[in-house]
């Protein structure tokens, strides 16, 4: 997430608007953004409706067995069509901003 923040201008040059979605409450997301100085959009999905729709629910993988979103990155075009996906089963692994930028530039 920090890498996305650091590459925000590069994403914007390609017309890409990064958005993060988590199971955290709006206040938890706001607190994270404030503490980490994130300026891109963070959405809250505490009932996992969007997370389930994109099939990235990691059931019971959170603190005290709570459901969370598994790490995933999507590039979605203006029509809502998914154009690129990066999925991982490891909570510590995410696509690097360079990978996402390269994929976006190729679209």
Account of the protein in words:
With 107 residues, this protein is an alpha+beta fold. It has one domain (2-105): Glutaredoxin (3-Layer(aba) Sandwich). Helices cover 35% and strands 21% of the residues. The chain contains five helices and six strands. The chain has helices spanning 2-6, 8-13, 26-36, 49-53, 97-106; strands at residues 19-22, 41-44, 57-58, 68-69, 72-76, 82-87. The chain is globular, with a radius of gyration of 14 Å. 8% of the residues are buried.
Quick description:
The chain has 107 residues and is an alpha+beta fold. Helix content is 35%, strand content 21%. It has one domain (2-105): Glutaredoxin (3-Layer(aba) Sandwich).
């Amino acid at each position: 997430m920090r890498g996305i923040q650091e590459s925000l201008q590069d994403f914007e040059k390609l017309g890409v608007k990064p958005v993060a979605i988590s199971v955290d409450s709006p206040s938890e997301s706001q607190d994270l953004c404030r503490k980490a100085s994130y300026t891109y959009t963070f959405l809250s999905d505490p009932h996992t409706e969007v997370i389930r729709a994109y099939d990235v629910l990691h059931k019971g993988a959170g603190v005290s067995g709570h459901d969370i979103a598994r790490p995933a990155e999507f590039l979605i075009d203006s029509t809502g069509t998914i154009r690129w996906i990066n999925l991982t089963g490891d909570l510590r692994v995410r696509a690097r901003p360079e990978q996402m930028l390269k994929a976006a530039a190729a679209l």
